[in-house]
Write a structure and sequence with these properties.
The structure is a homodimer of 206-residue chains.
Chain A (H helix, E strand, L loop, with lengths): L6 E5 L6 H12 L3 E3 L2 E3 L13 E3 L2 H9 L3 E7 L2 E6 H9 L3 E5 L2 H10 L4 E6 L3 H10 L5 H15 L7 E4 L3 H15 L3 H7 L1 H7 L2
Parallel strand pairs in A: 1-7, 1-8, 2-7, 3-4, 8-9
Antiparallel strand pairs in A: 3-6, 5-6
Helix pairs in contact in A: 1-7, 5-6
Chain lengths: 206, 206
């Protein structure tokens, strides 16, 4: 039988506000939702904690986990590995937690193949102009770097039609309400409710 | 392409609070949702208006509509016909309205067969004791009538696992929030958003 928790893959181009939305959601619903902590071989950045931001492992350890088929999805980016451990997520789901996976469309595809019950959510910016403006506001990036980010963003956005849900982050409060509704509605699906309320339906049909 | 609106079949045993929930939802969301008005051959009761509570027609008219395949679903109950016209609902859905169909599990099955995009919602009472108490509070019904209602309720409840969503109406505000989330989340599905935001995605990918 399905677990009470649901696995959510949330993808977005950078600048869409995905991290802020997930953070705001968890601030209100931290008791029944969490973000999956990925494994990586890259070095911790200042302030990053092992087990909180990532599980930091070396290449040999990561490759051993790959060989053990321990990952939902993994990828090599600029010479470093990133991956999502099945065991950790499964445990959270069975505790009834919803789990967010913050990965790109390629990871979303892999996860959906392995776990068809997972729900995929795409966060979209409200316009190209606004996306550009958000990327420009981030700081001291050169025009060249920003142009490259816009290109990467478009590549990510081109897969928007592969997702189960789309949240357009124009007004932040509305986008958060959309995200919240998606997770609440999922908890009302027949499979989840039948499991949660087994005793109730036994009583009603007695 | 799918319409922006969604057809919701809402079923429940009497005493579950279905009508109150739909009424409360529409009080807040009357601009983008409505209840389908059924056709019937039974006589109007005091206070019932033609076109508001039902479309009142005679047997010959109803049978003509059946022959024209004009109904999503219809049934004969105690010698009277009840039916849901396809044309009226389709028009509302294409205007972007969500439409509630207040029918039983048999109607739900028929509608789902004809319109697989329809979503079915079952409203459940929080316990058998509470259901009995709600039926008893309704007024001057004899024990025999109440026992019959409980039997009918159990028969309806036995089909709870055929529905897409289940809302347990224990705390009314929470049940209303569940219902509201289900409808809001449905508006965030990829198909609905891709249609609603066609111009946005053209802009983002330009």
């Amino acid at each position: 039988m399905a677990s009470l928790g649901t696995l959510y893959v949330v993808s977005a181009p950078s600048g869409a506000g995905k991290s802020s939305l997930i953070k705001a959601y968890l601030a209100d619903h931290g008791d029944n939702a969490s973000v999956s902590v990925s494994h990586t071989t890259r070095a911790p950045r200042p302030g990053e904690e092992n087990g909180v931001h990532y599980h930091f492992v070396n290449h040999a350890e990561f490759e051993k986990l790959i060989a053990q088929d321990a990952f939902f999805e993994w990828a090599e980016v600029f010479g470093n590995y990133y991956g999502t451990s099945k065991a950790a997520i499964q445990q959270q789901l069975e505790q009834g937690l919803d789990v967010f996976l913050d990965i790109d469309w390629q990871g979303a595809r892999q996860v959906k193949k392995l776990q068809p019950n997972a729900k995929t959510i795409f966060i979209a910016p409200p316009s190209q102009a606004e996306l550009l403006s958000r990327l420009q506001k981030r700081g001291q990036d050169s025009d060249e770097v920003i142009a490259k980010r816009m290109q990467e963003a478009q590549s990510e956005i081109s897969h928007y039609d592969e997702f189960d849900f789309i949240v357009v982050n124009d007004d932040f409060a509305q986008a958060l309400a959309d995200l919240t509704a998606i997770l609440r509605a999922q908890r009302c699906t027949q499979q989840k409710q039948a499991k949660k309320h087994q005793a109730l339906f036994s009583d009603l049909l007695a």
